[in-house]
Amino acid sequence: MNKILVVDDDLDILSLVKIMLTMNQFNVEAISRWEEIDTCMHHFKPDLVLLDVSLGDADGRDICKQMRRAEETADVPVILFSANAEMGKFINDCRAQAFIPKPFELSHLINTIKTYLN
Predict the structure, then answer these.
(1) Quick check: 64 and 5 in contact, CB under 8 A?
(2) Distance between CA 5 and CA 36 in Å, rounded?
(3) Taking the CB of residue 36, how many other CB atoms lie within 10 A of it?
(4) Rounded to whole angstroms, how far apart are CA atoms 61 and 54?
(5) Would you kindly state where each structural domain of the chain is located, as residue ranges?
(6) Where do runs of H (alpha helix) occur along 7-118?
(7) Which CATH superfamily is domain 3-116 in?
(8) Residues 77 and 117 sit within 8 Å (Cβ to Cβ)
(9) Looking at the whole model, is its pTM more than 0.90?
(10) What local confidence, expressed as pLDDT, does residue 66 receive?
């Protein structure tokens, strides 16, 4: 079972995404505090990270860049998501695999995740 780490400071979206992914046979760890990412990456060892761009006082794009610089997380696929569709223009800068605008269709989310897990 593939492991996915979901990071979003919106607890409603976080809960909904966790339920949807779990129902689709993924092992999901969901966190709302970006400060917990390093610990989660080390202990949970996700196969993919679904990362919100706007995390209160942090930017998911900067977190993605940090992940790319760290040996342990450099090869973990990252899918950014945001309610601001303009953020999709910046995925190459931080070397994220994909961008999904909110709101999103479940089928689109699942298909995008499967693309980068295979």
Answers:
(1) no
(2) 11
(3) 13
(4) 9
(5) 3-116
(6) 11-23, 37-44, 60-69, 91-94, 106-117
(7) Response regulator (3.40.50.2300)
(8) yes
(9) yes
(10) 94
Report H helices in 48-105: 60-69, 91-94
User: For each of the chain's 118 residues, which pLDDT tens digit applies?
Assistant: 999 999 999 999 999 999 999 999 999 999 999 999 999 999 999 999 999 999 989 999 999 999 999 999 999 999 999 887 777 777 788 999 999 998 889 899 999 999 999 7
Chain centroid, CA 89 distance in Å: 17
Whether residue 103 is preceded by a cis peptide bond, meaning omega within 30 degrees of 0, is: yes
**Residue 2 exposure: Cα atoms within 13 Å on the Cβ side:** 21
Establish how many alpha carbons lie within 13 A of residue 59's alpha carbon, considering only the half-sphere containing its beta carbon: 10
